[in-house]
Amino acid sequence: MKNVLITGANKGLGFETARQLLRAGYFVFLGSRNHANGLAAQQQLEAEGLDQVAVIEIDVTSDDSVRAAAAAVRAHTPHLDVLLNNAGISGVSEQQPSTVALETIRTVLETNFYGVIRTTQALLPLLHQAPEAAIVNVSSDLASLTRHQQPEWPYYAFKGAAYGPSKTALNAWTVALAYELRDSAIQVNAVNPGFTATDLNGFQGTQTVEQGAAVLVHYATLPADGPRGQFFSPDGPTPW
User: Fold this and answer.
1) Average pLDDT estimate for 41-45
2) Which sequence positions are flagged as catalytic?
3) Which of 3, 13, 102, 120 is most buried as measured by Cβ atoms within 10 A of its Cβ?
4) In three state form, how does the secondary structure of the chain look?
């Protein structure tokens, strides 16, 4: 059985992705910053007959928490087949670039960028033990610098000072990591699931969590000879 760790999986997009991967036959490590919230999510899945799941308490902004989470996964399995870096925050209080508080940017980067690096580095030894593995870094349309230069793009006016730049940085790091791991059995890609209705955006998204999760599941389960170091959206490859 293949194993997947999903961060931020107790609700929203992460939770639905966990559900879909469980239905596909994966064992899911349900990453949750709050253990009680994770248990509630686990119980909901088990009530649906999806019982190949275990809660992993993980706060991606904490070195100690991430190390403990990696140890917990290692105690359960000698390998990890998929790491899905889903945990993220929006920085909804961010202001214009000329006036935003640096602390706002630091806070968003701590989860969306540094948190992904911290988590990935801790889990890489287990990913290397899998015959083939995948890292999916959950990105956003707002990470695309190319699209930000296109006035006809529907989200052209969305140029916040923290969230978009945090995902652009994540994309750049994804490219670097994919290059480093180019001769390994680990695929690395950045995936934008689309504008999904979750509490991250006040449920203003234009697609359902089922639709967004299906995109993540697709790229988390690519064949071994699948693409690497790319940026994907629901409509396929996305300009950087």
Assistant:
1) 98
2) 163, 167
3) 13
4) CCEEEECCCCCHHHHHHHHHHHHCCCEEEEEECCHHHHHHHHHHHHHCCCCCEEEEECCCCCHHHHHHHHHHHHHHCCCCCEEEECCCCCCCCCCCCCCCCHHHHHHHHHHHHHHHHHHHHHHHHHHHCCCCEEEEEECCHHHCCCHHHCCCCCCCCCCCCCHHHHHHHHHHHHHHHHHHCCCCCEEEEEECCCCECCHHHCCCCCECHHHHHHHHHHHHCCCCCCCCCCEEECCEECCC
